[in-house]
Design a protein that fits this description.
CofE-like fold; 26% strand; five-stranded mixed sheet; 60s Ribosomal Protein L30, Chain: A; 2 domains; 5 helices; three-stranded antiparallel sheet; homodimer
Chain lengths: 232, 232
């Protein structure tokens, strides 16, 4: 087992509607010492994906309550100002993922319409430029049930198996590992957050050295259906 | 922002009751190229901590149901064989954290009595040997509400602030970041899992290059009280 590196990508400019994130990242890396390696995993924050896809809403024109309703499939809990909702995609998070930090004052940023498609688009364009296979994860910061504090989760992915399954494999004592399915893309998203501090501008990190399985499956695999969920 | 390295510590022997994990790790690192650096963060899996602290139970002498009851403060959900319980410490997880993989056949491994104390003990002994400040996180792999798959969490810690708070700080648009408290020790535990695969023997990882705040607070800070929890 080799070491894994979490590399912040510095120098990504402020992103505007229509910007091609793969092309911008490729250009930044070409001028940087980081370079590009086969099987680099790119963790891209939701924020710049949403901005490039035109998901910013000026709150002079939109009502926050109406935005919240239209982004929510279901309101899960509501206490005072805090609304925990299930988004159209199936994520359970505060304010249906609508973000009011790191955007212009009096505006709000919605989640990408389809973060897996965003990840796919980034991966394909980047691979065609770099001529190397990569993987892409779109991340966002959510709270959790039962635990204080927030961590990064994978809301979209492309080119990497979302789960490492050990079902049926044997441990070092030859016991069968029955119940171990690691949500590896969530762990990668959390790892990337360590170099993506909130108040500075690191919207992309590369995780290098992971021996991952390529896959057509995406981050939707981690969404538990309502009827399988004990805690809804 | 510099890069962060996740380094697997290979060569830790099978751990027995009474083994001193800090001394064993120090010896292994002294013979390895990895070395020891100031502010290295050691992520130690619960499994070897529990083994060293004599928490393995032979199921010829103990009844699994009785163990489960004695380890649980509260049964949260029960469906068929699956029991989700709140442990004596306050963790919500399957089987109250009792583990039957990577132990001898027909035995079970309980969580450490006080994982923060275990982390403290490791840190103090290691620091006295290495003469450098470090931080320690004890990790375990749990499932989550709403999301499929398991990730690593911090069940104990010493020497590192468990939460990075951005409350009151300004983002790049001068908006105040109201609600951002990152559970950084959970993210570090998740990052370490990427080099601690279940079927091979990497019970310890070092995360190097993190600019963390030292603290007397520990992993208990991340446990949400029942009366503050929306999802119990």
């Amino acid at each position: 087992m080799n070491e894994i590196r979490i590399i912040p990508v510095e120098g990504i400019p402020e992103i505007k509607v229509g910007d091609n994130l793969a092309e911008i990242t490729f250009d930044v890396l070409n001028k940087s010492e980081i370079g590009i390696e086969k099987n680099d995993i790119f963790i891209v924050t939701q924020k710049i994906v949403s901005k490039s896809e035109g998901m910013e809403r000026d709150l002079s024109n939109y009502d926050f309550e109406e935005l919240l309703q239209s982004e929510s499939k279901k309101i899960i809990r509501k206490r005072g100002d805090l609304v925990i909702a299930k988004t159209r995609h199936g994520f359970i998070c505060a304010n249906a993922g609508i973000d009011r930090s790191n955007v212009k004052k009096n505006s709000a940023l919605l989640l990408p319409e389809d973060p897996n498609k965003s990840a796919d688009k980034f991966r394909k364009r980047f691979e065609s430029l770099a001529n190397l296979p990569i993987a892409v994860i779109i991340s966002d910061t959510f709270g959790r049930a039962w635990r204080k504090g927030q961590v990064n989760f994978a809301i979209g992915s492309s080119g990497i198996s979302p789960i490492d399954s050990y079902i049926g494999k044997l441990d070092s004592f030859d016991n069968e590992l029955n119940a171990t399915e690691i949500a590896v893309i969530d762990e990668l998203a959390s790892a990337a957050e360590l170099v993506m501090k909130k108040t500075i501008d690191i919207p992309i990190a590369i995780i290098r050295g992971v021996d991952f399985k390529s896959s057509k499956l995406n981050a939707n695999e981690l969404i538990r259906e309502d009827n399988e969920d004990f805690f809804l």
